[in-house]
Design a protein that fits this description.
The complex is a heterodimer of chains A (280) and B (293).
Chain A (H helix, E strand, L loop, with lengths): L1 H29 L3 H7 L9 H10 L10 H32 L5 H10 L9 H10 L6 H5 L7 H12 L2 H9 L4 H12 L1 H16 L3 H6 L8 H13 L6 H21 L1 H11 L2
Helix pairs in contact in A: 1-14, 3-14, 4-8, 4-11, 11-14, 11-15, 13-14
Chain B lengths: L10 H27 L2 E3 L6 E3 L3 H8 L1 H34 L4 H9 L6 H11 L6 H8 L10 H29 L3 H10 L3 H31 L1 H8 L10 H11 L3 H32 L1
Antiparallel strand pairs in B: 1-2
Helix pairs in contact in B: 1-12, 2-12, 3-4, 3-7, 3-9, 5-7, 5-10, 7-9, 7-10, 9-12, 11-12
Classes of the chains: A mainly alpha (280), B mainly alpha (293).
């Protein structure tokens, strides 16, 4: 028995090593100087240049127009992450409420129209989506960055599922007490959904923060670059140079993963709940 | 739906309106436009377009380059799906067996989920870098002269490695929560009936996990088809020339770099059909799962 357990632990430790080591190496290497990395390769030890590199990455104005800093990109990523998550929750709660709690003529049709959006991810309609955004003059705006990403049904289905599991008696009781649809929604359903909202918020924030393709298309103005979108630009500048700024690239990668990783780690339980229940 | 419902002439429309408006403008309009422009040949200078029927489709499907990319996409998708699912199942089964440290392993194994594909791609670029990459040095020990970015197969290898790495946590989370939902009584009964842990896995655990595994299969396929865009974009750095790319990346290249709107739209529609079939498949299956649970 003990030998088998030992083997199990070995497999798990190897798995942990493969998943964790690259990020540890990336972080440690980011604290070295570029020339040092160029000479000695990646590093597992502390390089002592943490403050300089991260300060430079966060505050130095870079890019082609010299208007964008790392801090600005983090701010944009936050706007995208929070805006997307909040928008998604509001839209999908309202829509799910209408679908589950109301009998109305076009209800079924609307349900199927929302359902259809699950069939076609954004990636297969990028060019026409871009054209539409151009016509609406929404390129290089926060609206253009956030709102089109909301056009999918994942959240709606999640809340629909949840609302359906809410006991019927609650509505009956509320009606006896004379509560109308709006009051019932705000005073009963929203408080009941608190955990669900938190779980969905975490998933959607990570999803929004990590968006790459859409921000790449929508933002050509560097002031609107998100951190994840800016990474490509960093690489492009980097290709021509003599000693690439490995340290800065690693530092940006670490900064780009820090907020979503922290959220997943801190709210692990909600995160897993949201993930395993929303994708059903 | 509920037995008791509200009825109101305008409230439900008010509630559902924001979602419908966004779906109409940002989903239906572009989708219809994709289908429409796939039948037209757009003048590159913007002087109108000509109806060309299905020729955009036959151009795409008939081109040797497109076929090569389609073949790569199939191999890439199969490998990424198989490897990330396989490793995910292995780790989840082990994390479920060990009594000590299960929670710690879980925490350490899931957080890579939160790393964006292009960020993973950037890290991959460094680890496979010609000068500083430890993985290149490691491969050299076995006489493998790895040239990521120059050699087609080496680049493909690096892309697959990064994509799998990024996806393992997702599969791990789902399989582990599937495993933990198997009732203790069932586990104990199986443990009494069958001493061999491996056989128990095949005859008891795997069939019970089948719905989750099937769901993950589809999810992983869509991940490999679409979400790896960031990994590929960062790793080939716009120089697709002799590097492997997937079909989605080609849609992007033709539409935005090549300005071939009709061709790109036709490819979009082909991909739509692929996803459509995959999703229908998935929903039919999930319906079954709900039914049996």
């Amino acid at each position: 028995m003990t030998r088998i357990r030992l083997f199990d632990h070995l497999v798990l430790l190897l798995g942990v090593f493969i998943m964790v080591a690259p990020v540890v190496v990336a972080f440690m290497t980011s604290t070295h100087e570029a020339a040092d990395i160029h000479r000695n390769g990646l590093s597992l030890t502390w390089g002592g240049h943490f403050t300089e590199t991260y300060d430079k990455v966060l505050t130095r104005k870079g890019g082609f127009t010299g208007e964008i800093t790392g801090a600005r990109m983090i701010w944009n990523s936050l706007i995208l992450g929070v805006g997307f998550a909040a928008g998604k929750i509001i839209l999908s709660m309202l829509a799910a409420y209408a679908i589950v709690y109301f009998r109305f003529r076009l209800g079924t049709l609307f349900f199927w129209m929302i359902f259809t959006t699950l069939l076609l991810p954004l990636e297969v309609r990028i060019v026409p989506s871009y054209e539409v955004m151009n016509k609406l003059a929404l390129t290089n705006t926060y609206t253009g960055l956030i709102v089109p990403l909301l056009a999918s049904a994942t959240g709606t289905f999640f809340f629909r599922q949840f609302f359906k599991s809410v006991p019927e008696e609650l509505l009956e009781a509320a009606r006896i007490d004379g509560a109308g649809p709006v009051k019932f929604f705000i005073d009963v359903l929203v408080p009941l959904s608190r955990t669900m909202i938190a779980a969905i918020f975490i998933i959607m924030f990570v999803y929004g923060w990590n968006q790459y393709l859409w921000p790449t298309l929508m933002t050509t103005d560097e002031r609107f670059f998100t951190l994840v979108r800016g990474i490509k630009q960093i690489l492009l500048v980097w290709v021509g140079s003599n000693i690439p700024d490995y340290n800065e690239a690693f530092a940006l990668a670490i900064l780009a993963m820090l907020p979503p990783v922290m959220i997943v780690l801190i709210f692990q339980r909600w995160f897993i709940k949201g993930l395993t229940e929303s994708d059903k | 739906m509920k037995r008791v419902q509200f009825s109101s002439p305008f409230l439900p429309y008010l509630f559902i309106a924001p979602q419908m408006a966004i779906i109409f403008v940002f989903f239906y309009w572009p989708s219809v436009q994709a289908i429409q422009s796939s039948f037209f040949l757009e003048d590159p200078f913007g002087f109108g377009s000509t109806f060309v029927g299905l020729s955009n489709y036959s151009d795409a499907l008939g081109s040797v380059q497109y076929q090569a990319i389609a073949r790569f996409t199939v191999v890439f998708t199969a490998l990424v799906t198989f490897l990330s699912l396989g490793i995910g199942v292995l780790l989840a089964v082990k994390a479920d067996t060990v009594l000590k440290g299960s929670a710690t392993y879980k925490t350490l194994l899931i957080w890579v989920y939160a790393i964006a594909p292009p960020v993973a791609g950037l890290m991959g670029m460094m680890f496979f870098d010609q000068h500083i990459g430890p993985l290149v040095k490691f491969a050299a020990l076995f006489g493998w002269d790895m040239k990521v970015g120059l050699n087609y197969y080496d680049t493909a290898f690096a892309m697959i490695a990064v994509s799998v790495w990024k996806q393992i946590p997702y599969n791990f989370i789902f399989i582990l929560s599937g495993l933990q939902s198997i009732p203790v009584s069932v586990r104990e009964a199986a443990a009494i009936d069958c001493r061999s842990g491996f056989r128990r896995f095949w005859t008891m655990t795997l069939p019970l996990l089948a719905p989750t595994a099937f769901f993950l299969l589809i999810i992983n396929m869509t991940y490999a088809l679409f979400d790896t865009f960031g990994v590929i974009d960062v790793m080939v750095k716009d120089k697709a020339a002799n590097n492997p790319i997937t079909l989605v990346y080609k849609v992007y290249m033709d539409g935005f770099r090549g300005n071939d709107l009709g061709g790109s739209s036709a490819q979009s529609v082909i991909l739509m059909i692929v996803v459509f079939v995959l999703t229908i498949f998935q929903f039919r299956f999930i319906e079954r799962r709900v039914h049996y649970n």
